[in-house]
Specification:
The complex is a heterodimer of chains A (252) and B (143).
Chain A: H1 20-29, H2 34-53, H3 62-79, H4 88-106, H5 115-135, H6 141-148, H7 152-165, H8 175-179, H9 195-199, H10 203-213, H11 219-226, H12 230-248
Helix pairs in contact in A: 1-2, 2-3, 2-4, 3-4, 5-6, 5-7, 6-7, 7-12, 10-12, 11-12
Chain B: E1 16-22, H1 27-41, H2 46-65, E2 72-80, E3 83-90, H3 102-114, E4 117-122, E5 127-134
Antiparallel strand pairs in B: 1-2, 2-3, 3-5, 4-5
The chains are: A mainly alpha (252), B alpha+beta (143).
Chain lengths: 252, 143
């Protein structure tokens, strides 16, 4: 079995009812052609609907959620740049999910992060970087609590909040460069059936995934290698795995 | 990773946590928190705690996606000698277990990377995924 090349995008059929060529052709004229834009909406509506279903059961009707997801889809269509070389589905998914999360936030149904927790999170982020450097390894919760003058419960709470839901505030400019490291990696044969989905991930997530799962680097080691915080690496890994799950089971 | 009912180790101190939760996507965070909390109390380094949390997310997502839908998930977290072991189970049986296909591959490969031992098995609660992780990388233990 040949080794998949993660740098080459592979069509995995996330553009239902259309070929990639059709999608590309439509995007080339969507800025001035209302029919083309409408057709793009029609083609990708199943993606918006499947993402909306993930948020069903939280007090909003599915119809309303689909409407919100459709707004995200329209925004994604308007902002999509063909020259970036990624598929529309990969680009649109975070945009649509962001619109859904914003909807719940605006309606006041999401748990708001108290100011004290935000401050603890900032403290924790600084402390974690300093400690990891001085210790040469990932600190324990106990060590973090001592160094940051927080209780262990506060450390866990701050970490959970940041790791799961915080937006990616750090703008990273390494993306295209990092993609090159993926080519050096020996890909296990068992990953072959997942390779097309991995190829669809953004370059940065693909690289971090490869460093963790193929090279066996720890999150702390990856953080050093790519110049991000361990928390950021954790978020990107989590997001990449979520994307893979969705690709394998859009109904999930 | 083995698709077997092989036991992964002895339950060390014997301390454990067991939770039974409705099978809904939003319980993933609850289960992650429980597993992460147990590991943190045992002195796991931070990134190994996070490995456990990522593994937990994958296992729970997988159990939720299997058909037919399950009513509950039962998660048991055991404190082991030098590590922690998690057994997450569906209360509703599946037609085939362990599963096959790409979804199975993803879970297998994630657990292989993020845990020190793992297995699909049939537990006392139902179809289950078991995984274990040592506190210290490279340390030998009962796991």
């Amino acid at each position: 079995m040949s080794t998949p090349d993660f740098r080459e995008p592979i069509d995995i059929g996330l553009d239902p009812g259309s070929t990639r060529d059709e999608t590309r052709r439509l995007f080339e004229v969507a800025g001035t052609d209302a029919d083309a834009r409408a057709r793009l909406v029609e083609i990708h509506r199943p993606l918006a609907e499947s993402l909306a279903r993930r948020y069903n059961g939280y007090g909003e009707s599915l119809d309303d959620l689909v409407q919100v997801a459709s707004i995200g889809l329209l925004n994604a269509i308007d902002r999509f740049d063909l020259s970036r070389g990624i598929t529309f589905a990969a680009f649109a998914t975070p945009t649509i999910v962001g619109e859904l999360k914003r909807h719940f936030r605006d309606r006041g149904w999401a748990v708001r992060v108290p100011r004290r927790l935000q401050e603890n999170t900032l403290t924790l982020r600084r402390t974690m970087g300093d400690l990891a450097q001085s210790l040469g390894r990932s600190p324990t919760v106990s060590e973090l609590a001592t160094a940051s003058s927080l209780s262990e419960d506060d450390v866990l709470l701050a970490y959970s909040t940041t790791s799961l839901d915080a937006p990616l505030g750090e703008e990273v400019t390494l993306g295209d460069t990092l993609a090159d490291t993926g080519g050096d990696i020996e890909v296990a044969e068992e990953w072959a059936d997942l390779a097309p989905h991995i190829a669809e991930l953004p370059a940065r997530e693909r690289t971090i995934l490869a460093l963790r799962f193929f090279r066996g680097l720890t999150q702390t080691e990856i953080a050093h290698e790519v110049g991000l915080s361990q928390m950021h690496v954790s978020r990107l890994l989590s997001r990449a795995l979520d994307t893979l799950r969705l690709a394998l089971d859009p109904e999930a | 990773m083995a698709d077997s009912q092989e036991q992964l180790g002895d339950a060390g101190s014997g301390r454990s946590v067991c939770i039974k939760v409705p099978a809904r996507p939003d319980v993933v965070q609850v289960i992650r928190t429980v597993v992460g909390s147990v590991a943190s109390r045992l002195g796991f380094p931070y990134d190994r705690v996070d490995d456990l949390r990522l593994a937990t997310s994958e296992v729970v997502a997988h159990l939720l996606e299997e058909q037919p839908p399950t009513e509950f998930l039962v998660v048991r977290v055991f404190e082991m000698d030098g590590g922690v072991e998690v057994v997450a189970a569906r209360t509703t049986p599946t037609a085939a277990w362990p599963p096959t296909g790409a979804r199975h591959s993803l879970t297998t490969l994630i657990l292989r990377a993020l845990s020190d031992d793992a297995a699909f098995e049939r537990s006392q609660d139902g179809p289950a995924i078991r995984f274990a992780k040592r506190r210290d990388p490279g340390a030998s233990s009962a796991l």
